[in-house]
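Subject: for your reference before the review

Hello V.,

The reviewers asked for a structural picture of the protein, and I figured it would be easier to keep everything in one thread rather than splitting it across files. Below is the amino acid sequence we used in the manuscript, unchanged from the supplementary table.
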Amino acid sequence: MKRVLEQFGHHPSQKPLNKLMSKLHLARDYRKRFYPVHTYASQLQRELPAEVYNDFFKFAFVRNPWDWLVSTYNYLRHTPTHRHHRRVLAMKSFAEYAQYEIAHGDRSQAAFICKDKDVIVDFVGRFETLDDDFETVCQQMGIDVALPHTNQTRHRDYREHYDDQLVEIVGEHWRQDVSLFGYEFDGLGLDPKREFNVAL
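And here is what came back from the structure prediction:
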């Protein structure tokens, strides 16, 4: 998605000085600020002029937390260039990796798009309905691009990696994502096209 959309974006300098100035909030012109890939929407809302943030079409995509965790595990195991590759490869099982993720932070999807429990982006698509939802995004932005499938890793159905105890542990740890986005272990517990509580 990033690859096909970056041609339409604005690209501030990635030079070390601009990154440092952006991090220290010294880059006064918002068009010159550099934001890392995993920047929270709440930070953007706080730092961009209100009229700019409100005028942007803001969207995000979410995924079943149980499925996402298995996909991330396999991606890290099969990507030697990733900084966590060796650590994850040394783990004895997926269960060990799941416990590692839980012990080292939340990484919730909700945190990226919420402020005070309200969704502050305009559209939330789902990995489970990726093609249709991406088409909605493109229509909203008035562009026509195809979405290639990259970073694909082959692995068993995510449900085969879990026992009942691990299902509960993961569900409890990512309970905000499960509740907000309507997921259940086996998929979607709610209408995948339901409206989220969007605060505009």
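For the response letter, the relevant points are probably these. The mean pLDDT is 87. The radius of gyration is 18 Å.

Happy to draft the paragraph if you're swamped.

O.
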